[in-house]
Design brief:
single chain; alpha+beta; OB fold (Dihydrolipoamide Acetyltransferase, E2P); two-stranded antiparallel ribbon
Amino acid sequence: MKKLSLILFSLILFLKSFASAGEFIHGKLRIVDGDSIVINNQKIRLWGIDAPEMKQICKNEFKKNYNCGIESKKSLERAILEKLPKPKNLNVKYEPNNEVWCITKGKDRYKRILGICAVEQNDLLMPINDYTLNAWMVRFGHAVAYIRYSKLYKEFEEEAKTNKRGVWRGEFERPEQWRRKNK
């Protein structure tokens, strides 16, 4: 009974934080980079994460340079496509159904919508954010937790770092630091 009460209390707090945040946005998307998408002509920045910039170069586990910004964008594309239905008839031209759900969390200083996004709307209602695109990008090392704004994804960053996933396989500069030096 105590455990059930705790779960219900956590769920209420979680939903309450989202209710104060805003609205759902849903539709076909265009991926801008590893932490930005466009749905219905609205630019959405994935809240709580920071992905390498499109021109950012990192080093892999063999100390070879690679474009980690482009790799991050491709990883976000894969995360979305792998969760969407696959074609049953391979002889028919397949257009992927690139639809995503986001719940808004306000706007950043550039007036972009901040959002937590997922392929399925139900994944946004779960008390633990394991199934969001935000969490997936950090968990697999294609973005880092943007702890200046939220600590929600910090444990996923630690998991990626421990398991040497994505950028954590080699050497990289946190995107925020890279931007300061290069923009």
